[in-house]
Amino acid sequence: MARFSAKILLGIMLGLGILGVVHFYKQIEAPVFDLNLISKYRKLAPVAIIGSGPAGLGAGIYAARAGLHTVIIEGSKPGGLLMGTTDVENWPGEKLILGPDLITRLRTQNQELGVKFMTATVDQVDFSKWPYEITTTDKVKFNALTVIIATGATPKTLGVPGEQEYWGKSVSACAICDAPYFKDLNVAVVGGGDSAMEEALQLAAYAKQVLVIVRGNKLRASARMQARVQALPETIKIIFNSSIKTIVGNGEDVTGIELVTTEVSTKKSQVTQMPIDGVFLAIGYDPNTKLFVGQLDLDAAGYIKVQGRTQATSKPGIFAAGEVSDNYYRQAGIACAEGNKAALDADRFLQSIGFNAELAKQNFTRYFQPKVTKSNLVSSISSLAELEREVMQSKIPVILDFWGPHCPACTQMLPNFEDLAETFAGKVKFIKINVSEAEDLVRKFYVLRIPTFIICRNGEVVTQFVGSKDKKALTEIIEQFAG
After folding, report:
1. Statement: residue 2 has pLDDT above 70
2. Residue 320: which pLDDT band, with cuts at 50, 70 and 90?
3. Is the pLDDT at 445 greater than 70, yes or no?
4. Rounded-to-integer distance, Cα 84 and Cα 202, Å
5. How far apart, in whole angstroms, are the C-alpha atoms of residue 47 and residue 68?
6. Do the Cβ atoms of 46 and 146 come closer than 8 Å?
7. Are residues 344 and 68 in contact, defined by beta-carbon separation less than 8 angstroms?
8. Is 336 marked active-site?
9. pLDDT for residue 367 is more than 70
10. Tens digit of pLDDT for each residue in 89-115?
């Protein structure tokens, strides 16, 4: 018995020794959290949140309520994927609410609590030293004591011929944006989950027929969503064990697809030419983690790994929330709750290194204050008379933004549009046109999709493009025509 106990004791000692060595090396690799260092910085954020979907906005609310100066970098698509959602029926306390309306409420709540929003996209992060450094695409740099990553995930594409050629024309990932343009036409939705069912239901209100193409032999959508789709058998048809081989068009719009269908019993495939006027994709996501490769631990699919029941990542003081780290639940409510958790984790981390309320007050003058955009630099027009006065007679180039209040891509681009109006003040005039209030202007410029951007110079149209652009791409286009 004594001999056995000695062996156990030796094993425990050796185990502790090994753990001690591992801990030692982790300490060497980890940044030094010396609060004396913050006196060297003039642009500090106790909490920086990268991303402005439900996870980022949920984190902002809790961080602000903890009394922490918080900055949210909105990213290229403010509001995230929920901006492309129609009816949300599973948000606690709301029987039914539109996705964009929910994001607006969350954003307003953040602003009222003092959270600072930054209309920018993160270009680079440096997590090798603390305070952590964040650089945006427009070269703004600041340092953060904690970082909450809520960059979400991006819808996957098919990668088939014709997809990119007709993207933003008759190929889309947003039925709420484009469904009205397919009235009495035939469309296809690719996917078998809740998102695909929602796209199909949105399109069913306009299209003549909606064909749902499912790669597998069953739907992955919830029972409730399946029931809603199956209640419309005359409009929505589901085809299983099928995939699109090619998207066919006439140079302007999609005219059909080549559909590959596999017979389950024989395993033989058949290619069918099918007339289709539009294709909508809902086939899954890729995590937006490119920025963090080599800096944080990612799983095999590229999602950020979090520790246990916390939102902590492999680097102290850095946390992840929402679909950037969740490849399983993919729910807005859960993403928001994870944002809440991440903010609590960040607050506890700051307390653990000695950053208390007194220190927060002492360093107030060092806090990073994002530039506040002057939205009054963007005007609106809705008539031909206003077009003549504001555009045709303008001595500087004019960029027209044709948008709609219920188009997620449109509303996501408005902050960038307003921010660039300040950047190019006096060189380019920025005007937005609500398509629901300006039918004459829509007809004059043959606007078939939104958002549509038209640049005029000396009263003439010099370029036109359709679909969303990030701030960097939009800047590059405008620079070509700025005086």
Report:
1. no
2. very high
3. yes
4. 11
5. 7
6. yes
7. no
8. no
9. yes
10. 889 999 999 888 999 999 999 999 999
Active site residue: 123, 126, 174, 299, which one? 174
The beta-strand segments (E) located in 396-444 are 398-403, 429-434
Helix, strand, coil shares, percent, the chain, to 5: 35, 25, 40
Q: What are the distances in angstroms from CA 40 to CA 131, 134, 143, 230, 324?
A: 10, 16, 11, 63, 32
Cα(463)–Cα(457) distance, rounded to whole angstroms? 10
Candidates 178, 194, 277, 419; catalytic one: 178
| Region 32-54 average pLDDT | 94
Q: Is 174 a catalytic residue?
A: yes
- Report d(CA 435, CA 468) in Å as an integer: 16
Residue type, 123: D
Nearest to 187 by CA among 84, 274, 245, 284: 274
Q: What residue has token string 């937005």? A: 432
Residue 437 and residue 381 in contact, taking contact as beta carbons nearer than 8 Å: no
DSSP assignment letter at 332: H
CA distances from 78 to 289, 327, 378, 461 (A): 17, 21, 19, 29
> In 3-state terms, what secondary structure has residue 353?
coil
Pure H helices in 186-266 = 194-204, 223-230
Residues 6+ positions from 110 with CB-CB distance below 8 Å: 57, 60, 61, 64, 72, 117
pTM above 0.90, yes or no: no
Task: Give the whole-angstrom CA distance, residue 165 versus residue 471.
Answer: 22
Packed helices 54-65 and 332-352: angle between N→C axes, nearest 10 degrees = 40
The owner of tokens 């890729």 is 286
Two tokens, residue 356: 């208390």
Give me the catalytic one of 126, 177, 297, 419.
177
Size of the chain, expressed as the number of residues it contains? 483
> Cα torsion at 329, 332, 333, 339 (round to 10°)?
90
Instruction: Determine whether 177 is an active site residue.
Output: yes
- 279's CB contacts (< 8 A; 6+ apart) are 163, 166, 170, 171, 172, 187, 188, 190, 244, 247, 254, 257
Enter the tokens of residue 81: 């994927």
As a whole number of Å, the end-to-end CA separation of the chain is 90
**Residue 439 pLDDT more than 80?**
yes
